[in-house]
Specification:
Elements lengths: L2 H16 L22 H36 L1
Length: 77
């Protein structure tokens, strides 16, 4: 590489790196509105309902498993 090419590459790298610096203003972005007030509110509520249904199904499964285990123990005697 010639001297000119090295200087050009170094200058290009410095220009690229200078664009990565932070701005002098340290303003925080505004706080987003609550999710229920956005277009995603229905999706979040549907997801929460699905979680509730899953929890109740898991509880029913655990109860059935306990009943089956009790029946198996009863038959083994």
């Amino acid at each position: 590489m010639t001297h000119f090419q090295r200087v050009f590459v170094a200058a290009a790298c410095l220009c690229i790196l200078s664009g990565c610096g932070s701005s002098s203003k340290s303003e925080s972005p505004p706080e987003p509105p609550p999710v229920k007030d956005t277009v995603f509110g229905d999706l979040v509520s549907a997801k929460d309902k699905a979680k509730g249904v899953q929890d109740s199904l898991n509880a029913q499964k655990e109860e059935r498993d306990r009943q089956m285990q009790a029946e198996e123990e009863k038959e083994a005697r």
